[in-house]
């Protein structure tokens, strides 16, 4: 601590000199006191003064003629003015023209100051997160692995899981990376000493299996599960199936025969017939486990699936393994019973129902043999030694080639020597392949692979990233993975920094399928859809909810955002589009006719409700409670995610919303919230959130359309503090479209934060505004915004770390006479 304080004290004169130089440059750029000062005195200084210091801000102390001297303060003022948060509702407020002049004047001065003295910020050491690690292994070794099994879970910072400041490296986490390196190396090389393991793939309990489950299942099938599985070596493997049971472990659907298929890469391995044997007296269907049937029937109902397995030789590599039932078309007779829900779903035996798959098990290898030709081995073994004398040279070539890609730069001679030493130790214990496996394990354990550390030049001023570091930033931004050969070659040659070259690479990389990472990683986190997985709707309120609907909700949003990116549409169309992607399950939920099957297809809507993000069940469900909608949650989501104006967190003593019927009468959510807002401490935030949320009240907690709620007709009209009025989803969409620049600015801010791996700061706001201006000429298309981000100051530049600055200043003082 003493050394740190000494270093900080020595750095004060250097910091003061730097600030004086910046003030001298910015003084020439900032205008003299003008209409800005007059407007501030009229509308702001009455509260924000030295005596009151409302919001801990005293504007009468700040010189309006030297905007650059207090850039962070003025950025806060500009944002409050732009979102119309200040002056507060009820106070004297400027008209729209005055607002626009104030914002334009402030932001122009701030942008000029930022151009004269860039403040790019700094990204600390960046550990590869689980997704980046998985993708890097895929692109480095042509090996698909499940990162969730290899790497421990990790938190998200600023809404994204690639924010460097939260990607810590505890000893326990580093151990998982070391263990993962060993596992991956053995799988990639095809280690024949791999012992048999059992991998289990569980089907969610609430997954309905009455139809074909996705494009990876054959036509004419029903239910089951399909997985992409990597077989590490040639050998014999056992594939087995466990069927679904009810609470007391009785198999479901054994009253009639059903056929079940096991397939690998679409080829039928075996077809089993199960059920319909009728062994003795059955137990009552709704009392299995409480009232027993004949002993033979009891044994059968617990063990009928014991023989659902095959043992077959399978070649190494990634293959599709699936199990499904042969679909039987039946016409129900008699009086239809209400669907089972809640406790009954897992308790009743359903003897004459349809069986379902509980889990798929793959075990092996048994009697393994060496893998000779797999995608991973083709990636690794760029040469094969013809004799023992050639092995060292070939090993050096293999490991240096892998290290170049893994380290995202040419490896040093010392690093190659270390890898060769690991190879030799492995070669001494076995054969050439074992030596390469040991060297590969060392590559995957290296800090140069696991961490992105941007090199700092000798100068202390903000600096441009080297082409090598720029290549990594670009590839992890667009692909969440390592640079490919073309990008790395350009970086090594030093030409990637050329703007024209950089533009061509951005376009090429967006066309590549790996840019799907922008959808799966950026968009799904930006829209906060991670919470969708944890939503458990109330079974009494929503008895029809199942895992099929949850998956369909998520897939709709993924396909919609992907289409926007692939077609390079304006990002404003995320809100304004009139189409989406649905399958039969989602069509039933939305009450859309004539959509059949599990395949998603593009559907255009003309009702003003669906289409775009606002009408998608994934977002509407993720912003609701399990048993009802929440205008507050939805309003907050809209403010934070789409408009970039999140309300402050609620104070700790805010009373909860009263339950409906608490006073003996039925009240709508609107009426209860109006009573809630009578508390002045609540009104200041709710006056902005609630109107936005009210406009979505025609859509229930699962996103279905409704005309009434709690027995009261839904009122979806709303008005904002500035007097703007709108009604329903269509009105909200029109409102957001009329504030398209605010939406684009928020989108650019969030995408910039994801791109650089840190939260945006006040010093980044000029860059965000420039991104919006630069992309406006191309109607804010995805490619235009992404290209503008790649050329922005925060993306292409950095500053030295505080520790480096202090150390350099201390070193300078020690050597100064």
Topology:
Elements: H1 2-29, H2 35-43, H3 71-82, H4 96-116, E1 126-127, H5 130-141, H6 147-150, H7 171-189, E2 197-202, E3 221-231, E4 234-243, E5 258-264, E6 267-274, H8 295-303, E7 309-314, E8 317-326, H9 343-347, E9 357-369, H10 375-380, H11 391-406, H12 413-429, H13 432-445, H14 447-450, E10 451-452, E11 463-464, H15 467-478, H16 485-493, H17 499-511, H18 517-526, H19 547-566, H20 573-576, E12 579-582, H21 584-590, E13 601-604, H22 617-622, H23 631-642, H24 669-676, H25 680-694, E14 708-709, E15 712-713, E16 717-719, E17 725-727, H26 728-738, H27 740-756, H28 765-776, H29 782-790, H30 793-796, E18 797-798, H31 802-814
Antiparallel strand pairs: 1-10, 2-9, 3-8, 4-7, 4-9, 5-6, 5-8, 11-18, 12-13, 14-15, 16-17
Helix pairs in contact: 1-31, 3-4, 4-28, 7-13, 11-12, 11-13, 12-13, 15-16, 17-29, 18-19, 23-25, 27-28, 27-29, 28-29
What does this structure look like?
The protein is an alpha+beta fold and 817 residues long. The protein is 44% helix and 12% strand. The protein contains 31 helices and 18 strands. It has a 4-stranded antiparallel sheet with strand order 2-9-4-7, with no helix packed on it. Strands 3-8-5-6 form a 4-stranded antiparallel sheet, with no helix packed on it. A two-stranded antiparallel sheet has the order 1-10. β16 and β17 form a beta hairpin. α4 crosses α28 and α27 crosses α28. The protein is flat, with a radius of gyration of 31 Å.
Short description:
By secondary structure, the protein is of the alpha+beta class.
């Amino acid at each position: 601590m003493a050394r740190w304080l000494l270093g900080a004290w020595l750095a004060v004169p250097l910091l003061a000199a730097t600030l004086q130089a910046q003030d001298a440059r910015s003084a020439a750029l900032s205008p003299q006191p003008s209409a800005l000062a007059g407007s501030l005195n009229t509308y702001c200084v009455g509260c924000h003064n030295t005596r009151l210091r409302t919001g801990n801000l005293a504007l009468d102390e700040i010189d309006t003629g030297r905007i650059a001297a207090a850039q962070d303060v003025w950025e806060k003022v500009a944002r409050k003015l732009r979102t119309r948060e200040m002056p507060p509702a009820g106070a004297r407020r400027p008209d729209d023209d005055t607002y626009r002049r104030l914002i334009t004047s402030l932001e122009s001065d701030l942008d000029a100051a930022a151009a004269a003295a860039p403040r790019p910020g700094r990204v600390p050491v960046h550990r590869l997160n689980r997704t980046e690690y998985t993708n890097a292994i895929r692109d480095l070794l042509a090996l698909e692995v499940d990162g969730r099994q290899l790497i421990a879970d990790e938190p998200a910072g600023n809404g994204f899981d690639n924010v460097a400041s939260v990607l810590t490296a505890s000893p326990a986490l580093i151990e998982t990376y070391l263990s993962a390196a060993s596992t991956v190396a053995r799988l990639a090389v095809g280690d024949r000493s791999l012992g048999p393991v059992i991998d289990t793939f569980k089907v969610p309990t609430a997954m309905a299996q009455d139809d074909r489950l996705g494009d990876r299942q054959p036509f004419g099938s029903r239910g089951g599960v399909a997985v992409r599985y990597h077989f590490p070596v040639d050998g014999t493997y056992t594939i087995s199936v466990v069927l679904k049971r009810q609470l007391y472990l009785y198999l479901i659907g054994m009253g009639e025969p059903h056929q079940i298929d096991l397939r690998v890469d679409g080829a039928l391995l075996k077809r089993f017939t199960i059920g319909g044997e009728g062994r003795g007296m059955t137990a009552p269907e709704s009392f299995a486990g409480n009232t027993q049937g004949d002993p033979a029937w009891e044994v059968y109902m617990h063990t009928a699936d014991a023989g659902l397995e095959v043992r077959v030789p399978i070649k190494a590599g990634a293959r599709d393994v699936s199990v499904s039932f042969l679909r039987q078309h039946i016409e129900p007779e008699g009086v239809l019973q209400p669907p089972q829900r809640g406790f009954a779903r897992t308790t009743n035996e359903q003897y004459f129902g349809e069986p379902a798959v509980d889990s798929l098990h793959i075990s092996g290898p048994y009697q393994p043999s060496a893998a000779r030709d797999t995608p991973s081995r083709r990636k690794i073994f760029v040469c094969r030694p013809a004799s023992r004398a050639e092995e060292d040279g070939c090993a050096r070539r293999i490991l240096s080639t892998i290290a170049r890609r893994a380290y995202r730069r040419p490896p040093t001679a010392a690093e190659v020597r270390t890898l060769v030493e690991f190879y030799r130790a492995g070669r001494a214990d076995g054969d050439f392949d074992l030596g390469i496996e040991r060297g590969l394990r060392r590559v995957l354990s290296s800090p140069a692979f696991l961490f992105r550390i941007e090199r700092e030049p000798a100068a202390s001023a903000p600096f441009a990233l080297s082409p090598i570091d720029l290549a990594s930033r670009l590839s992890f931004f667009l692909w969440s993975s390592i640079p490919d050969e073309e990008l790395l070659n350009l970086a090594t040659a030093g030409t990637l920094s050329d703007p024209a070259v950089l533009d061509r690479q951005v376009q090429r990389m967006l066309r590549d399928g790996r840019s799907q990472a922008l959808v799966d990683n950026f968009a799904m986190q930006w829209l906060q859809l991670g919470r969708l997985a944890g939503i458990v709707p109330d079974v009494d309120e929503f008895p029809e909810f199942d895992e099929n609907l949850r998956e369909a909700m998520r897939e709709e949003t993924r396909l919609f955002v992907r289409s926007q990116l692939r077609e390079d549409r304006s990002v404003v169309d995320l809100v304004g589009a009139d189409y989406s992607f649905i399958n039969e399950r989602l069509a039933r939920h939305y009450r859309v006719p004539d959509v059949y099957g599990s395949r998603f297809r593009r559907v255009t809507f003309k009702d003003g409700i669906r289409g775009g993000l606002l009408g998608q069940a994934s977002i509407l469900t993720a912003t609701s409670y399990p048993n009802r909608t929440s205008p507050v949650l939805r309003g907050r989501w809209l403010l934070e995610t789409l408009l970039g104006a999140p309300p402050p967190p609620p104070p700790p003593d805010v009373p909860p919303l009263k339950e409906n019927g608490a006073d003996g009468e039925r009240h709508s959510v609107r009426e209860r919230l109006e009573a809630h807002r009578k508390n002045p401490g609540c009104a200041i935030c709710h006056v902005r959130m609630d109107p936005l949320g009210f406009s979505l009240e025609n859509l229930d907690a699962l996103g279905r359309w409704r005309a009434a709620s709690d027995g009261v007709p839904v009122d979806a009209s709303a008005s904002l503090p500035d007097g703007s009025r709108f009604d329903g989803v269509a009105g909200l969409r029109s409102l957001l479209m009329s504030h398209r620049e605010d939406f684009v600015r928020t989108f650019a801010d969030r995408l910039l934060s994801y791109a650089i791996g840190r939260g945006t700061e006040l010093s980044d706001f000029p860059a965000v505004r420039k991104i919006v201006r630069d992309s406006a000429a191309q109607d804010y298309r995805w490619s235009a915004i992404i290209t503008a981000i790649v050329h922005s100051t925060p993306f292409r530049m950095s500053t030295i770390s505080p520790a480096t600055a202090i150390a350099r200043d201390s070193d300078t003082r020690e050597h100064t006479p």
